[in-house]
Amino acid sequence: MTALQDARVLVTGGAGFIGSHLVDELLRRDAASVTVVDNLVNGRRENVADDARVRLVAEDVRSAAALALVDDADVVFHLACLGVRHSLHDPRENHEVNATATLELLERARAAGVGRFVHVSSSEVFGTAQYAPMDEKHPTWPETVYGGSKLAGEAYARAAYRTHGMPVVVVRPFNTFGPRSHFEGDSGEVLPRTIVRALCGLPAFVYGDGEQTRDFLHVTDTARALADIAGCDAAVGRTVNVGSGAEVTINDLVSTVARLAGRPDLEPERLEARPGDVRRLLVDNTLVRELTGFEPRTSFEQGVADLVEWFRGRPESPQEMLGRIEDRNWVAAGAGVTA
Fold first, then answer.
1. Do 39 and 170 belong to one domain?
2. Can 146 be counted among the known catalytic residues?
3. Of 16, 192, 229, 300, most Cβ neighbours within 10 A?
4. How far apart are CA 233 and CA 222, in angstroms?
């Protein structure tokens, strides 16, 4: 068992959505120190816990300064990435961050003798489900360069284990949601974007027929699963899926948000399908349960209700947030490294 207690931990992308919640979880588990490296283009300083054990280094994960931080770490969680929509308008940079930077980090971690390297991948490596629920042996047919670049990062991580015996684990979170999720720019996700629009009294945008399904897991559950897997010796060399095991259509998501935001009268506006949009995702959690006993704790309904209130409590008004949403964010210019 690799204990996170008293460990020196490096979290790439740790000022982003999932990364910052992981930092919170590591502090709860009494990590000795947590170093966050994030370029703060999509990540935010205010996401990072105000704790003496936490150090934020504002650097791009591709930089020499970021790589040097690996040398002082017992455990590395690699979450820094560029997302699905970004890959549609800047595939080369997407590959550089998600694949090439992963290889560089692995090589540095191998040289430094890091005790555990957790590569955080994505369910997007699968593409659309060929069968469901989707276990770790499900075929990988990515729909986008993002999915392809995350799959390349996975392959490098597994190769580091098989070739050099590096203590590597690959984790594939499915669709994570909760506080600090991105609504803006090409990082904006459907759930927070829909909530912001509802709070402005505007209908949701549904791309395509809305029968696409996703497997939504609350971010606190995702962070807990990542920490559990990192501490599990039996997970070394394995690839592990993490999700809720429940399927939600985009149409159901939209109606749930409208109801919980107090605007059940809002009817969605239907637009053309997005390019590279995965049709179906549903996890098989058998392996993570066997390895760690993991079970989700927050339901989709409760998590959405809490997220609506979180957005209501933000210092920005809904109208100010709406101004930062790009309706077709797969053609947006500019993006940053986050998680």
1. yes
2. yes
3. 16
4. 19
Selected catalytic residue, list 146, 156, 161, 207? 146
Any idea of the CA torsion for 107, 150, 21, 5, to the nearest 10 degrees?
Answer: -30
Whether residue 158 sits in one domain with residue 238: yes
Element (H, E) at 248: strand 248-249
Q: Provide the percentage of residues in the chain whose pLDDT is more than 70.
A: 97
What confidence tier does 337 reach under pLDDT thresholds 50, 70, 90? very low
Evaluate whether 173 touches 122 at the Cβ level (below 8 Å): yes
* Close Cβ partners of 233 (under 8 Å, ≥ 6 residues apart): 1, 2
What is the pTM (predicted TM-score) of this model? 0.95
**Residues 295-324: tens digit of each pLDDT:** 999 999 999 999 999 999 999 999 999 999
Cα gap 177→182, rounded to integer Å = 9
Structure tokens given for 144: 């986008």
Domain that holds residue 268: 181-214+246-282+298-329
Number of structural domains the chain divides into: 2
Cα 302 to Cα 304: distance, rounded to the nearest angstrom: 5
Confidence of residue 335 (pLDDT cuts 50, 70, 90): very low
